[in-house]
What does this fold into?
Amino acid sequence: MFVITGPSGVGKGTLIRRLLERIPELELSVSVTTRRPRAGETDGVDYHFLSDPEFDHRVEAGDFVEHASYSGRRYGTLRSELEQRTRSGVPVVLEIEIQGARQVAEAMPEAVRIFIAPPSEAALRSRLEGRATDAPDQVEARLATARRELEAQAEFPHVVVNDDLDDAVDALSEIVRTATLER
It folds into this structure.
């Protein structure tokens, strides 16, 4: 299992898409969120979109391996998503927030944990504003959260700086290939 985390807007999704193209035997775990779908997102493909009451019910039922709040929304990884793949020996990629990555590290210490970092705060701001998915106050809130999250880099055995996309994909692919060979 590969846990990939980092601040919002750092390019986790883009890097993971490119990683999955290079290493097609990997599968992406579909996370749960309480946020509304963005344009072009599909329920069950990009995320499992749940209401807050549905999310609460799943938490109480113990359905999550990890769950966390981030920027006013809730996210989580369903145990069933992981078990379905790991039972069949499929290597799984989790794209999750820092809080969730910490929970997975405790529950599954064998998981390979990778932190994606921006080259600078200015680059991160530019990416968040360029997405045009958040209002200015939301961008500021995400940046404030990102500053705190960047302090967590030291907790992760692997850090990839997403400055040049091709270089970052190369570094991420090397980490995954090396870890896969070692197991």
